[in-house]
Amino acid sequence: MTATVPVAAGRPPRGRRTRRRPRTRTLVLAAVAALPLLLALAGPLIAPHTVDTPVTAPFATAGDGAPLGGDQLGRDVLSRVLHGGTLLVVSALVVAVVTTLTAALVGCAAVLRPRLGRVIERTADIAILLPPLLGIMLIALAWPGGGRRAVIVAAIVLGTPYAIRVVAAAASPLATAGYVEAALARGESTGYVALREILPNLRATVLTLFGLRFVEAVYVISMAGFLQIGPQPPASDWSLMVRENASGILLNPWAVIAPSLAIALLAITVNLVTVSLAPDTPAKAVTRP
What we know:
The chain has helices spanning about 15-35, 35-45, 75-85, 85-110, 115-130, 130-140, 150-170, 180-185, 190-200, 205-225, 240-245, 255-275. It is an all-alpha fold and about 290 residues long.
């Protein structure tokens, strides 16, 4: 005779609780990691000073009225850092969205149409060989008055070929799946099959790709700003601040360290958010009921 252990009423099964905990940790991680991103967007609203008003001596150390000291003109470093991230975030977001959407659509079309796929693959291979810095300089020279818009266009043009190869490689096994072949046999269009049959099974790949494209866009735009391709003085741009204040790094290190840390934290936190929100087991989505 065996005894049975009663289950407490209203108590969820152990397996269900273990599935909820990882999702809770994911949401908490995403919320914490998104704080620097929100701070970069809302920085101008909480900055103590304007970006162009001197409040202290040039390269003054941290003190009253300037928690991070002054820059080369005596302007508040903290205020300029809080103002300097908004345009960078918006620009990188535009680059990441356009690049990811283009790569998702073109990459799926490439695996569904082999001839088109070979043309896209060869074109992408050639475009990948172009160094990002050289591409930015060429577009900036061809578009002298483009400013930040020229840098955004350069980042999209240079980042899309690699993104297409990533999506095409991830979508290639799905092109021979039974449900995709059934949709093609029904006479569905390439766009329908790509949007309704393949892309839903590439959520993890597309979300991760979006994070990588955002991080790369941050670095590309920052590199262009450091070379004074895009924003010009007296704009409050993080990469431009690093260039302008490099000569006084020994007098007030925060004038260079603060914007550099802001760029790094922005890239790291966005990458953490996208990784935490990506599905844990994307391979299970390949088989549809």
